[in-house]
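Before the break, one more example. Copy the sequence into your notebook; we will annotate it together after we see the structure.
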Amino acid sequence: MFVIYDKEQQKYPIKVWLENIDQIEESCYKQAINLSNLPFLHKWVALMPDTHAGYGMPIGGVIATEGVVIPNAVGVDIGCGMAYVETNIHKSEFTGKVLNNLIGQIMRNIPTGFDHHKKKQACQVLDKFSAEMVTDGSKYPKQLVDEIERGYYQVGTLGGGNHFIEH
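Here is what the structure looks like once it is written out:
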């Protein structure tokens, strides 16, 4: 992680979870600079490892604001989660056969891109919502019911584009 902060060009710093500035697209960088000058920004702009230009707000960009909500800052990947998980396994243990085995398990068990599971996956959130739709289905459009059903096959998938697993 490094910080970009030029007091003459920015009101707030930009924290970047990459190795160096050369890994940021020019258009993404300009968007981050613009965000760093918003008067209602809270503390800083954050750029995650998958950052790239979006529509005014970088994809993989995160901001907190004071007193305002910016729907585009939530982005088109709403519901797409990124998690950092710390384990008790040191990175030096992820070599050769162990790493290849792990990658093989991920590739076999986690559908990517537009692929999905062949069987329904357990999901308490979808179960709860489905039960609510049965109880009061009149307030939900049929398209939503269909999407909930598809959701059971998409739980635990990786997606495509800027979605990734890394160690």
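The first strand starts at residue 2 and ends at 4. Residues 96-109 form the longest helix (14 residues). Try to locate both features in your own notes.
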